[in-house]
Amino acid sequence: MLSQAIWWSCIALECFLLARGVLGRLIVRYPVFYGYILFVATQSVLRSVVHRWYYDQFYFSVYWVTEFLGLVLGCLIVFEIYRVALAGYPGTARMARKILLFLFVLALAKAGAAFAGDPHLLTDTTPLQMERTLRTAQAISIGALVMVFAAYSIPFGKNLRGILLGYGLFIGERVICLTFVPVSGEDFWFYAYSGSYLMALGLWLGHLWCYQAIPATERNAPLDKEYQLIAAATRRHLQDARGFLRKAMGS
Questions:
Q1: 55 and 42 in contact (C-beta within 8 Å)?
Q2: What is the per-residue pLDDT across 123-177, written as a single tens digit (0 to 9) for each?
Q3: CB of 207 closer than 8 Å to CB of 161
């Protein structure tokens, strides 16, 4: 009974959130986030229908396919948070995109090498283990962004702060469950996980009721200055390395 109440409450809040996103044109500013909310609402209805009518044949496959697609969209939310949060710092935004892309390629390369070395690894890895890895990466990315903005006193703005708080709460609770809590059906942690998403929806609805621009910051903010210094130093080191290589090859 409690799980049904949580489920219907989540559906209602998702519909309200999507409606406010359309009316306030927030959906244009945060398309990935609202695409994620639409997907989660759709997958909830789809799973319910499949569970009611086709449980034995299709439910397990439908559940994990939709869960994986939700994880991918969740990763894209992290990229959108970085994009919007660092819009006023173009140099730092470029560096952040390159770092995130590098980490993504590195993770794929590591996984590919592991699968090549152990052909049975893919079959031995459970969906929950895969989810834990992706959720942990999301948590680290969000934590890193929060620390950078706190260190340089950069404002998030009400809308982005709401997205970050709600998604951070949801991801943090999920990582704790996947890491420390054994799967045991509808216990306290099952309801805590469902409740954390309900709380996240409440935070999102409160912070995204209407659009509020991120407060303007100085163009010469310390964060972008440091990026420019790092970029200049990197260019100098590369030039020195090329010069040293030319001398070594000429000798």
A1: no
A2: 555 566 667 777 777 788 788 778 877 777 777 788 999 999 999 888 888 888 7
A3: yes
**Distance between first and last Cα of the chain:** 81
Cβ(67)–Cβ(135) below 8 Å: no
pLDDT of residue 249: 59
Q: What is the pTM of this model?
A: 0.75
The runs of H, that is alpha helices, within the chain are 2-23, 26-29, 31-53, 60-85, 90-117, 121-124, 127-151, 158-180, 188-207, 222-250
Give 210-216's long-range contacts (Cβ < 8 A, gap of 24+). 210/20, 210/24, 210/26, 211/24, 211/25, 211/26, 211/29, 211/159, 212/157, 212/158, 212/159, 213/157, 214/84, 214/85, 214/87, 214/88, 214/155, 214/156, 214/157, 214/159, 214/160, 215/155, 215/157, 216/88
Provide the pLDDT for residue 174.
Answer: 83
Q: Which two tokens stand for residue 130?
A: 């895969």
Taking the C-alpha atoms of residue 235 and residue 237, their distance in angstroms, rounded to an integer, is 5
Cβ–Cβ under 8 Å, residues 203 and 158: no
CB atoms within 10 A of CB 204: 26
Domain extents in the chain:
2-211, 219-251
Q: How far apart are CA 248 and CA 243, in angstroms?
A: 9
User: Half-sphere exposure (CA, 13 Å, Cβ side) for 20?
Assistant: 18
Residue located via tokens 């200049």: 232
Query: CA 38 to CA 14: how far, in whole Å?
Result: 8
Token reading at 241: 């390395």
